Amino acid sequence: MYGMVNDCGHDAAANILHEGIRMAAEAEFTQFKGEKIQMLVLIRGAGDIASGIALRLYRAGMDVVMTEIPHPTAIRRTVCFSEALRLESEIRVEDVAAVPVLQKPADKRNREKLREQVFSILGSRKIAVIEDPDASSKEWLQPDALVDAILAKKNLGTGITDAPAVIAVGPGFTAGLDCHAVIETKRGHTLGRVIYEGTAIPNTGVPGNIGGYTTERVLRAPAAGIFHTVRKIGDHVEAGDTAAYVEQPDGSRVPLCCHIGGVLRGLLPDGTPVEMDMKSGDVDPRDVGKNCYTASDKALAVGGGVLEAVLNLTGKLRMSRG
Fold first, then answer.
1. N-term to C-term CA, the chain
2. For a Cys staple, 237 with which of 25, 31, 241, 321, CB 3.0–4.6 Å?
3. What crossing angle do the helices spanning 48-59 and 297-314 adopt, rounded to 10°?
4. Is 10 exposed, middle or buried (0-12, 13-18, 19+ CB in 10 A)?
5. What confidence category does residue 316 fall into, taking pLDDT thresholds of 50, 70 and 90?
6. Average pLDDT of 309-318?
7. What integer pLDDT is reported at residue 75 of this predicted model?
């Protein structure tokens, strides 16, 4: 009997403890549903790698705002939050929603309304995507961390004083000089590693090896003109198949043919103006159609590196532990 009473008392205490934890969690969530932002990260770029980063940060409980150019040219559109701006509507990548902010941050008269719109989106636990190529919104967003994920292979204006923690993705940056940390993007043993001193591996101009193919995977515009799609993302293709064509100013059409077989993982949207040799598509020789609709291994690996760097540089986890 004594043992039974002791067990009951233990269970009651455990129930009280669990209820207390649940109530505390609910209270914290209620605070969060208002506009009390625990961690705000601004990401420059909203292509597939930037979107993989956003997924990692969002799922770790952070609020994410992404900036993009007026007319995004992402290839892997099914996994890019930049599509929210292009389509001017809410979109999802995997299970995460993003909402476009259609007002321009350069218009100072609308800045307060813009700020309200952004924080309203964040309060609904969605990602906000802004047309803001220079990331001028950092001045009024005051993010805890800024991530440059443009992947231009050079610095287009990011500075180490832009936020308390500034993280750059890929080559073109020096940790300790124009950012606090650099994330390695080259496929291989060091992919996703955080670099706190120095630079990432220089750009070789050769795409990463997937299924034994590098440059053969990439589809490039065969001429300058207007890009028109023939196939769609997710289609199976064989070497020699026409994925799209470019309509030149004189009305002639130049076909864009696949070099290898596989699944068409990426393709520019129909009607996009292109220059000769512009990256326009991507064939994945692994030929797994469902992979076209989830973030890539590379994007998530890089995203994991960014998450590590943000937490390390801001000390948020150390502060939360008291």
1. 42
2. 241
3. 50
4. exposed
5. low
6. 84
7. 96
Q: Is the pLDDT of residue 20 over 50?
A: no
CATH match of 40-205+296-320 with 3.40.50: yes
Q: Global pTM?
A: 0.85
Number of H helices, E strands in the chain: 7, 17
User: Tokens at residue 228, please?
Assistant: 């028109």
Is residue 228 within 8 Å of residue 242, measured between CB atoms?
A: no
* Domains of the chain by residue range: 40-205+296-320, 215-285
Q: What is the pLDDT of residue 33?
A: 40
| Rounded CA separation 303/55 (Å) | 8
Is the pLDDT higher at 115 or at 194?
194
Cβ(118)–Cβ(127) below 8 Å: no
Residue 99 has pLDDT above 70, yes or no: yes
Return d(Cα 27, Cα 5) in angstroms, integer.
33
The domain defined by 215-285 carries CATH number 2.60.40.10: no
Span 191-228, pLDDT tens digits: 999 999 999 999 888 888 888 999 999 999 999 999 99
Structure tokens at 82: 């930049």
Residue of 263, 292, 268, 266 lying closest to 278 (CA atoms): 268
Strand ranges across the sheet with 236-237? 218-220, 279-284, 262-267, 236-237
